[in-house]
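Reopening this one. Same input as before:
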Amino acid sequence: MEAGKLVEWLVQPGDKVKRGDVVAVVETQKGAIEIEIFEEGVVNRLDAELGEELPIGAPLAIILAEGEDAPEEVKPTPVADPVPDVEDAPVAPKPAPQRAVLPPSDVHAVSPAARVRAHELGVDLSSIRGSGPGGVVVLSDVEGAQPAKESVQKPSPASSPMQEMRNAIAAAMARSKRTIPHVYLTHTIDIQSLIEWLSARNDGRNPAERLLLGAVFVKAAALAATKTGELNGHYLDDGYRPSDAVNPGVAVALRGGGLVAPALMNAPSLTLDETMAGMRDLVTRARAGRLKGSEMTQGTFTVSALGESGPELMTGIIFPPQVALVCLGAPQVRPWVVDGAVVPGTVITISVSADHRVADGRQIARFITAFETFVQTPEDL
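Same output, byte for byte:
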């Protein structure tokens, strides 16, 4: 993203905040993102106004540590219109910047999920009385309201949220293929023992507590990444920076189309049950528009799986500035040689896309070998 629109403040001057607190909501091309705090202190002032579109890096607020004096007021820089690149073009007087402020009825507190649903249903948020804490409009308020008739105009396809998301995906993927020299390795892995282990592990569990193949794949990939630092990090302007943290992005298909890949933080330290719970939580919040900014920016590589059924092979495009993408096809029953005999077995095909500036076939092969070992010994995960 290059800019975002501030749509909700969740704190006010004087409020105490600590690391991990969500203080604001910003709309991007891929939906609403919650903005977190990474310091402890007291909110001194809010510098950005609701409805204002701000470029990346613009200040939103001032937070003071205990005993710290407030700095001089700094106003955020609004997104500027492109300036024609003409040497001798006449210079017109620069008008004062105008802030795009939402009408008071529209700046009433609205949860991101409710805002997205209201857009889908064509509901005028200013006509809804919120039932949430402090009068916040929540998802159930929107779904119980009647859509506005003539007062709401449906956006043209070119400006719809889905089209904006597709535009963002297209820009990122085009940039990736243009600037990253991709190298691909694929390998087929026998997971018959994993299937049998999962079946025994899930026996007697209710559906909400069952482990899925995806959790095993994400945990195995995270552990494999700890052994191959060349695939875990970011390639920035000054070169490759390996990451000490291993935060695999989990590709999530959104209802109605589109894709996001929020990060599962510190995945190697999680148990399989915690990994499964974390993935369920990411999917639920991704589809409700409640992801955090850190989850969208701190992924160190991405895992994308086709699920329990479908094609056997998928190769993908790396999401910059990451340097690796792990794709997993759906399980397939194939003739397989075990102890010299051909037997039916369940297999999956893994495909790793890597940045050739950072890794070559040897490092990728090490990752795949480690992944295979972990997948085939799930009791050790």
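So the earlier flakiness isn't reproducible anymore. For the record, The chain has a mean pLDDT of 84.
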